[in-house]
Structure formats: structure tokens, C-alpha cells
Amino acid sequence: MEELKTEKLCKRIKDFWLEGVDITVHSGEIFLVAGIEDSGNDMFIKTLQRICRPTDGKAKLCRSKVGSVVFDQNFYKNKTVIQTLKMSARLNGRTVTKGMIRNTLNLVGLLGKCKYKIKDLTQNRITRLKIACAIVGRPKVLILDRPFEHLDSYESRIIRVILKTMADKMDTAIVLTARDFGGVEEIFDTTAIIDRGTLVMTESYNNIARIYAKFSKTCIVTPEPNLAAKLITEKFTVKANLFNQNEVVINTHPDNAQKVYDYLKKKGVNISAVTRVNKSIAPLFHELRLHRVEAIKPNAEQGPADPLVEKPEPEKPKEEPKSPDKKPNSKPDGATESKGGAK
Fold it and tell me: What is the SS3 assignment for 305?
């Protein structure tokens, strides 16, 4: 079921414009709008949130069932956390009970801080409060502007679980923006990439992963980097570069890290950690701006993203069949050796 749909959505402000963006988001779908700074994704999400009115086109969604996170949203500094959450629910026309408010605060880890004033909260707790204001009352559509900003890895993981649960079990349609794939690549189903105000492509997670793999690298932390780099280059068709004193960086997607890890472990190499090096989508946009869209678009007939190819083992030289051993100076059967020369 379609929960949100835009048709030729446009917004023009002086020298910048958002031109004809069409997207459709269904129930239970997590839709990522990706873009670097000034690419147009922020303007698009603010148009959906009615912070900006579109110049042309329209967005179809039921406003009474929408929860939003506005990136630069401010709260009253002298209000408490629980007062802010209640006020947000009331302004959005949602009827909530005390139990719903307590459960929402507990989900985002703010139940113990419910009586804190906004001015006493750190930036990451304010971000979590914004998410609480968006999800309280279980809206059918969530529009989240950079929801993972200012959160550490643990807090980001909690929010990812909450959003994934709402999409899978409550059929919530979720639209969110991000400037990198680091916090969201594990949960989104579809992504729209906007550059210079234009929708460049709309692809599934699998296809985006195939494109993004070209710009991702894997870092292996080991006390034996020279040995690890040698083994990797001997076994696989990838480059292995030494970095710092105990790191090896290989040009392959982190999805292939397990294969490399298992091989090195089999060879007795001690490995401390395996991490991703490049989470930024800036290289992808660099390619787009060089007009290489067709070159980097995924081919439907391609195999899995960035396959880690093993080098073929060198063929052993074929041995020639051995002829029966003959004694030196042997004579054919029936021949006799003449003494003293021929007569």
C-alpha cells in the first residue's frame, strides 16, 4: 500500500532548485534519500515536512499520521523531557497515554532523564528526544532528517533496531536522509540519490551495495601485517596495502571480509579486528558529477557485489611419458658385433 508519493515535486529558491522528484514509499518500507551537502536531499525532506512549500508538483500523504525529525529542530530549553514529548504529541494531533509516553522514552533510553530540562541535555540525548517525538503514538509514516547525527555507534544501533521493528511489525513507511551509508546501510530497502536538485537514480539496497562496493575498502588489524598482505595478494586478485604499523587495507567490500578472515586464520595469522575504511558517499557523487552514471549503474545480469576472486593455482608442467630404458650402445636383436673390421 502506498503511504507516500511525490509527483514532479519542485522547489526553486534563487539559484537553487529541486526539479521534478518522483518517489513512492509503501507500507513497511525504509526509503533512504541520500546526498552530500547542497545536493538537494535536505530541501526535498523539508518540502515533505512542510517546512518549505513546493513551487510545483505535490506530495500525497496523510498528515495526521506522520511523525517527523527536523535536523535543526529546537525545543523550549526550560521544558522537561516528558513535557516536550507530550507537547509534541498534542501539536501533531496524536492521542497518547502515560504508558505510551513511558514506553517511548524507554525505547530511546531517556526514561531515567524524563524530568531533566532540555537545557541540561547533551546533543545526543536531544537527538534521541527528537526521535521519541517522531515515533510516539505509532504514526504510519516517519520522515526523519539525518536521525543518526550526533549519535555514537551503540545509540545508532538502538535507533536502527527501533526503526526496523516499526517497519517490519507495524508496517510503518519510513523516509530518512543521510550523507553517508555508515549508519543506515543495514536497514534501508530502497534509496533515491539526489544530486544538484535532480533525482539521479532510485535503486534497491542490493544494487546500491553493488555500486558502493567500488568505493569501499576493508581494514584488517593484525600484529603480522607483512605476512597477512603477502598471503592475501598470493591468494586473491586484490591489492593489499600496509597502513600504520599493524593494519592491512584491501580494496574489497566489507561483505567479503569473512572470506579473507577465514583464509588468514587458516594460515595461522592472528587478527585483532576487521573494519570498513570508507563509509562516505562522496566518491559516488564525484563519479556522478563526471557524467559516469551509465558506467556505474548496476547491470541486472551481474553477479553479487564486488566478488572476491581467488587466483587460479598455477598449473603443474605436464610430464612426458617415459620411454623404456635402453642400455647405451645397445644393438638391435639379431645383430652381431664384428671384430677386426669388415672383410
Answer: coil
Please indicate, yes or no, whether residues 26 and 75 belong to a single structural domain of this protein: yes
β partners of residue 221: 247, 273
Is residue 225 included in any domain, yes or no? yes
Q: Which three-class secondary structure state does DSSP give residue 106?
A: helix
* Residues 180-186: contacts with CB under 8 Å, at least 24 apart: 180/279, 180/280, 180/281, 181/34, 181/208, 181/212, 181/279, 181/281, 182/276, 182/279, 183/148, 183/151, 183/156, 184/32, 184/148, 184/160, 185/209, 185/212, 186/160
**Angle made by CA atoms 224, 229, 230, in degrees to the nearest 5:** 100
Alpha helices in 217-308 (DSSP H): 225-235, 257-266, 282-289, 293-296
Domain containing 80 — which CATH number? 3.40.50.300
Give the predicted TM-score (pTM) of the model. 0.70
- pLDDT tens digits for 21-72? 999 999 999 999 988 877 888 889 989 988 888 999 988 887 668 888 888 8
| Whether residue 82 sits in one domain with residue 107 | yes
Placement of cell 514506553 in the chain? 103
Of 276, 302, 323, the residue that ends a domain is 276
Report helix angle 123-135 to 98-107, nearest 10.
140
pLDDT tens digits along 301-328: 444 445 567 777 666 666 665 555 555 5
Pick the last residue of a domain from 169, 195, 212: 212
Other C-beta atoms lying within 10 Å of the C-beta of residue 124: 15
In 3-state terms, what secondary structure has residue 125?
helix
